Amino acid sequence: MNDVAGGQPSGPSPRPGKDLYFLLIALAARSRADCLGRRVGAVITREGRVVSTGYNGTPFGMPNCSAGGCHRCSQRDLDTTLRGGAYDVCVCVHAEQNAILTAARFGQQTLGAALTSTTQPCFGCLKEMLQAGITDVHYLHQWDPTEAYGDPALAAQYSALQTRFSTFEQVGDPAMDTPDLFAAVIGAHNT
């Protein structure tokens, strides 16, 4: 049944579950990322409420990746060894790190919190999430640490870190993540 004035259904629209709701917030946060490689968004939640969000990009006061602020991004087409790994030479702060640091900056507790990311967190972010007391990790897109690091020992350490979380799982359907997911909203706002 349609509402005559707006052509919209008059009944309630489907309501996403909490996991999908938090994933949608992480996807929205990702829309602010300026990385020339993989754009990532994250949200930290505690007791079913949003604590903070983050997206990957250069530190405050530095030029964005698209303006040459990150050597790794600016060299990605010239030096393919920088793709998928070499995170230690990237100046960008990861989405998960930004979410943790934003929570710290504003005094929000992360002990016992969950983190939802658009991409499976890297090795460094897993260590930082454990240190911050995050217990549950959810992500949309899988990421292969063996491919990224090329070192079976590091991949084994990554697997060991995964077991330290109460939950470490993929949520949502990666097929839902299309390039135009928020295009209508962002395009309408930028006009």
UniProtKB/TrEMBL annotation:
The lineage of its organism: Bacteria, Bacillati, Candidatus Dormiibacterota, Candidatus Dormibacteria, Candidatus Aeolococcales. Residues 17-152 form the CMP/dCMP-type deaminase domain. The keyword Cytoplasm does not apply. Signal peptide: none annotated. Its cofactor is Zn(2+). One of its GO terms (molecular function) is zinc ion binding. Belongs to the cytidine and deoxycytidylate deaminase family. Coiled coil: none annotated. This is dCMP deaminase family protein. Keywords: Hydrolase, Metal-binding, Zinc. GO terms for cellular component: cytoplasm.
